[in-house]
Amino acid sequence: MSEYEYLITEQSNGVLSIVFNRPKANAFNQQMVDELLQTLKYAAREASIRCLVLTGRGRFFSAGQDVSDVASEIETISYRHHLEHTFNRIVRHMRKLEKPIIGAINGPVAGASLGIALATDVRWAALSASFVFGFTGIGLTADAGTSLTIPLLIGMSRAMEMAFTNQPLSAEQALEYGLISRVVPDEEFPGAVDELAASLAAGPTRALGLTKRAFNRALLSGLDDVLDYEAFMQEIAGRTEDHKEGVAAFIEKRPPNFKGI
To answer: Which of 156, 187, 202, 227 could lock 88 by a disulfide, CB 3.0 to 4.6 Å apart?
Structure first.
């Protein structure tokens, strides 16, 4: 594997561990996106990799897109172009990768990184983890596949509440809703994930890959269209005054004053 600035990767006994490592909240910039895409492509072609684990270093899984990058380009950024070259590519690669991907949600996750987490195959969370829609907090709408995956996993009403209120779900709430499949005490979490990864890596990975393909066809056959439509909607939301206000409020660490324009 190549040396990365914002990812820590380790391969052992068929398991590739990918750790987001961009302090302080593991938020994505373009380089981090490129590093993750390069790693996913490597995992797809490397036969010795039989299972992947995605997690974060430190207190956060990931806060999603680095809002400070958006703030510096807010008058000129095309969100459609941005998504087509960042998170949409990541989600597509993850769902097409016919190897098990474990989402080890070690802490808070929000925005586009929530979309990445929900693109994994098996999601376990540490007790201290939390799940935030994030987009509406800065005047944006769903992307990274979340308009499909959140309602699919937890139902329309809960998805609407999560998106409209932007209130975090605790790990225990996420388990109750079906967003994840297990909650593990923080001190036991790394060991439990390692055991799961070793078990999957020792399994019939060709059969697991085909099962993933079948589930994709049954439930996520419209994913490409969803990602494209989300990018179109995000382009509209990104041109609103509310989005500019949301980003300014985020940077200035104050409550936003949204006006619906």
So the answer is: 227
Beta-carbon contacts of residue 17 (< 8 Å; ≥ 6 apart): 8, 9, 10, 11, 52, 53, 55, 197
Domains of the chain by residue range:
7-186+212-252
First-to-last C-alpha distance (Å) of the chain? 47
Q: Collapsing DSSP states into helix, strand and coil, what is residue 53?
A: strand
Tell me the pLDDT tens digit for each residue of 218-238: 999 999 999 999 999 999 999
At 69 the pLDDT is 86
Can you tell me the distance from the alpha carbon of 130 to that of 46, in angstroms, rounded to the nearest whole number? 33
Instruction: List pLDDT tens digits, range 77-129.
Output: 999 999 999 999 999 999 999 999 999 999 999 999 999 999 999 999 999 99
What Cα–Cα distance (Å) separates residue 73 from each residue in 6, 89, 143?
22, 21, 19
Does the structural domain 7-186+212-252 have CATH classification 3.90.226.10? yes
Cβ–Cβ under 8 Å, residues 38 and 221: no
